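Researcher: Structure for this, please.
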Amino acid sequence: MSNSVDFDGRPFHFIGIGGIGMSALAYVLANKQLPVSGSDKYPNHITKRLESIGVNIFDRQEANNLLFFRSPTPTSTNEVYLEKQGKIHNIEQGMTPQVVCSTAINNNNSEYKAALELGCPIFHRSDVLAALIALHHSIAVAGTHGKTTTSSLVGYMLLETGLDPTIIVGGEVNAWKGNARVGQSQYLVAEADESDGSLIKHSPKIGIITNIELDHPDHYETLEEVVDIFLKFAKQCEIVVGCNDCSTVRNRLKPTISYSIHSNTDADYSVTDIDYHAEGTTALVWEKGTVLGVLKLCLLGHHNLSNALAAVAIGRNLGLEFEDIA
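Model: Predicted structure, token format:
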């Protein structure tokens, strides 16, 4: 794998661009006016969304796909495409793309082998995400469970309070009609995956850790191996927001800011008077022993209340008034 991701105009080519994590990155890069192409054997509504913003999608994975941006000529398809997208002047003649792949792509993949032969810079998906995180005031959401919900809630909170974040999540969200949105502010909210150990590549301003359990047996044999990854991640965060209801997070990671949905804890943020009803959930939120007010959610379940409380902790850390968050 190569070391430095180039956001200054060199094209990107995604092998397996239809995946939820890959497509989110491709969407962000394309919206930042970078040339993007990708291949996927199984085109879907996600690849159609990418095509609608100018990403060139190949439904076969073959070596020639990597030459799409190379040496454009006045009569070539790629010149017409690039002129249409206003990107032709960003690409030097003979330039090969930066190739992005996920853990699912093996060394026998035809495009991966072609990238090696052409000398293309090759990046894991997490490398590109890490580079984007480093460029922003980033909030990375990690944990065995609840990452997508928590990152969506944090992103929605920042969006609704006018902070205009860039958001990259592992699911499709109605509020921005997909798995990513591009904002114009310094803020970026990203879901950070621990399944393959790549979590340790990220160094965000704020890291959220929802919980830690033994999962992904194809990569981890023991809970201690999982804990070690999260400890390394936590050390690379300026601020760690952690759930005290998980004993491993509470005792091993010792978060900078803690939250709990139980009232009998010493967490920085907690709740009482929890009420689940037909419209969702309400709870009284406390900040270091002081009542902030009533939080209203259109979601049910203790786990969703916990995820929302993490978002409250983030909002308060960013200086938002509770009334604007709730």
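Researcher: Any notable elements?
Model: Residues 302-317 form the longest helix (16 residues). Residues 12-125 form a domain with the Rossmann fold fold (CATH 3.40.50.720).
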